Amino acid sequence: MNNQFSSRLIKASKATSARVMEITTPHGILTTPTFMPVGTRAFVNHMTPDDLIHAGSQIILGGNTYHMLLNPGMDVIKASGGMHRLMAWNKPMLTDSGGFQVFSLSKNSKICRIDSEGAHFKHPINGKVIHLTPKSSIETQKIIGADIIMAFDECTPEQGGREAALPAMERTHRWLLESKETYLASPYSAYGYKQALFGIVQGGSFQDLREQSARFIVDADLEGIAIGGEVIGFNMQKTGEVIDWVRPLLPANKVRYTMGVGLNPQDLIDVVKKGIDLFDCVAPTRNARHGGLYHGKISKTADWITFLSEEQNGRLFIGKAIYAKDDRPILEGCLCYTCLHFSRAYLRFLFKQGSSLYSQLACIHNIFIMQTVCEQLRALILAERTEE
Length: 388
Fold this sequence. Notes:
TIM Barrel, 19% strand, globular, glycosyltransferase, transferase, tRNA processing, ArchSynthase1/Queuine_TRR, queuosine biosynthesis
């Protein structure tokens, strides 16, 4: 076993800012760009590890720090030997710091309060007060045991303007230094595996704050750089602008991660073109469970690719009556397990029945499509002619 973390640039596009990187972790090697399915509560909804692997997943976001503190708790995770063993996932894993959940909870001051030290919230079941600070977040992520862990941050809200963005960024920077200090005391998980710490660029929708934050994160000299905030992934036009603002400041040899990007296959195509390596989103499995199945094909443009679809938002809604007797797969030519074995008619029947089998088959398809897009992006970048 290679108990190290490293990343190297394999190929940079001449036509765009896209690139392919190889990331080595104690739990295996992955090649970017790649999508991370999200297992917020220590499982990816309706998918087994085998399903994820056969769908092309190289890495997952496994176990959110906030949710893992609540349930099953660190004692259970540690007794299991860490999240990898608990989930039976033997490939690379990233976990987050809990910052986004703190942001969501803090909208109700009775549930969560943020101050200069961190966040203070009540356990929703037993009422116990839990303090999530930069130190406790890192210590928790050491017990979770993910290969990539995140510095504790405050997700920047879009409401509140500069008056909200500036203090959130300043707290994120201060908490980054505290996170790094705790991490460097022992840059290994509770099980002896080397972990990589990523910092998070905040600053909302303000170019000067984003640039200031990017410089701060780069100066911290961590293994990777994430771009966070409520706007990232939610507003794709603004997401692209933010990436363009900070990309000139980012070192080529560090991994770049946009947090929460992946509502649609086209979103992956757009951020990869701008130089992003990793991305995660709950939307593919959530869309699948609610009947939205990705439907489209990759089409080449002058210098890039696009996800072409005749369906609204690139998703076929399986609940429509027109599919009741439709013997075709979700997507002609798709090689996922679902499309190779089941018809739209059967999937609609399962969906109308509220069957858990529907959810599993639908999630398999949507994750497969996301990973297929990433595979084609990697192939496109690697196949580009290198100028002599």
